[in-house]
Amino acid sequence: MMTTPFWESTPLDSMTEEQWESLCDGCGKCCLHKLMDEDTDEVYYTNVACSWLNSETCSCKDYANRFQSGEECLKLTRDKISEFNWLPETCSYRVLAEGKPLPAWHPLITGDKKAMHDAGESVKDSVVYEIDVVDWEDHVLNHPNRS
């Protein structure tokens, strides 16, 4: 008998901490610096990564201490779900908060990150670091509401 996966049967605000943390696909997109238009509040993504991001693994170099790192790492919490619009459209937290299913490449579905990397849904080996940036606008990748 098949059981329904927890992310399909448990509301985000009722998940255990372990379930909540496991939703993260580990793509590294949230570790990219963003620019906000002061007039419109629109968010623009760049390819400039947090200095703690390992671009090969798409993981934080010191995840346990990320909030003390001096970077502007934000903790994604259930009480701020309504504020997740700055997250990439593929982010599991945002996808589920919007009532959509996890994508087929998600590690909870496939069992590892390979399908995500193969689908081009991670920042693997595609970032620069702030020290290398002269003009931030040259590093804008996309607008979150455009395809």
From TrEMBL:
Pfam families according to UniProt: CxxCxxCC
TM region(s), chain numbering: none
Family: Belongs to the UPF0260 family.
NCBIfam families according to UniProt: PRK05170.1-5, PRK05170.2-1, PRK05170.2-5
Name of the protein in its database record: UPF0260 protein LNL84_01325
Record organism: Vibrio gelatinilyticus
